[in-house]
Specification:
With 182 residues, this protein is mostly helical. It contains 7 helices and 2 strands.
Length: 182
């Protein structure tokens, strides 16, 4: 096994572990949101101090914490599971790493928007949310290492495929839709 293969496998394995942890974090945030909004508003999210900068309860129950009536953290669950599936299947089809990379870039952009909303509109940050932002950042970094291709090549491949919708992209889109509904 050459160093390139070892590096790719190491990056993929690390990403898998990070995504599993991220899925657990997202589930915890969704549960906390639902309990806070629809249940016991006194339930606290552990390991998140409350001070003049950080308050997970305020961020996770603000008007910005939902999209279409669904907690924003809930969208991380199908995203992370989809990227997990893409990384596993990339051994057979390396194109899937380009899709995972592009999904990661979109997640990073959305994380940047949510960070801006938290810091400017809500006035507080959430440590748990920032953990998800870091996980989102790991997706393009580690898929880029696993693919060992330039970011431009990975995004370019995804954009070309969006123009023609080949079978792997259709399967990826269908899998995301199923995971999102579930």
């Amino acid at each position: 096994m050459n160093s390139s293969t070892r590096r790719s496998r190491w990056a993929a394995a690390l990403l898998i572990l990070i995504l599993l942890g991220g899925t657990a974090m997202a589930v915890r945030l969704v549960r906390h949101h639902d309990v806070q909004v629809y249940g016991d508003a006194m339930a606290a999210l552990g390991n998140c101090p409350q001070n003049e900068t950080i308050n997970c309860e305020i961020v996770n129950t603000s008007a910005w914490s939902e999209m279409f009536g669904v907690p924003i953290a809930a969208f991380a669950i199908p995203t992370y599971l989809l990227v997990l599936g893409l990384v596993f299947r990339a051994r057979r089809d390396a194109t899937l790493l380009a899709y995972a990379f592009s999904i990661g870039l979109l997640a990073v952009l959305y994380s940047g928007f949510l960070f801006w909303v938290s810091s400017t509109r809500i006035g507080f940050l959430c440590l748990w949310c920032m953990g998800l932002y870091a996980i989102n950042l790991s997706i393009p970094l580690l898929t880029g290492l696993a693919a060992w291709r330039s970011p431009a090549a990975l995004v370019g491949r995804t954009l070309r495929d969006l123009g023609s919708w080949p079978v792997p992209l259709r399967r990826t889109a269908a899998a995301f839709a199923v995971l999102l509904v579930a």
